[in-house]
Amino acid sequence: MKLFALVLFCASLLFGAVDINTADKKELMTLNGLGDKKADTILEYRATNCFEDVNALAKVKGIGPKFLEKNRDNLTASKCKTK
């Protein structure tokens, strides 16, 4: 059953972009060049900030222009919710 859920999860990622404002750690780690520590850094940043657009991801330490260009087609940023 776990394998089936994993296959469904991976298939959904193939057809949809990772939303940097809502993605969990596993979803973030599907991005090219993003591992455990960078995923945690994004989640920590997101706890107090909202990504207005994909380019705002560059504000996170360790995320640079090369990463953004490699992953731009697989990224999206949903509308920020007011607190």
Write structural notes for this entry.
By secondary structure, the chain is mainly α. It has a single domain (2-76), classed as Photosystem II 12 kDa extrinsic protein (DNA polymerase, domain 1), CATH 1.10.150. It is built from 4 helices and 2 strands; from the N terminus they run H-E-H-H-H-E. It has helices spanning 2-15, 25-28, 36-48, 65-71, and strands at 18-19, 75-76. Strands 1-2 form a two-stranded parallel sheet.
Descriptive labels:
DNA polymerase, domain 1, two-stranded parallel sheet, 83 residues, mainly alpha
Q: If you consult CATH, what is the topology?
A: DNA polymerase, domain 1
Number of domains: 1
Our Rg estimate from Cα atoms comes to 13 Å
- With strands numbered from the N-terminus, the spatial order across the biggest sheet is 1-2
Largest sheet: 2 strands, parallel
Secondary-structure element order, N to C: HEHHHE
Summarize the helices and strands and which ones pair or pack:
Elements: H1 2-15, E1 18-19, H2 25-28, H3 36-48, H4 65-71, E2 75-76
Parallel strand pairs: 1-2
Give the gist of this structure.
By secondary structure, the chain is mainly alpha-helical.
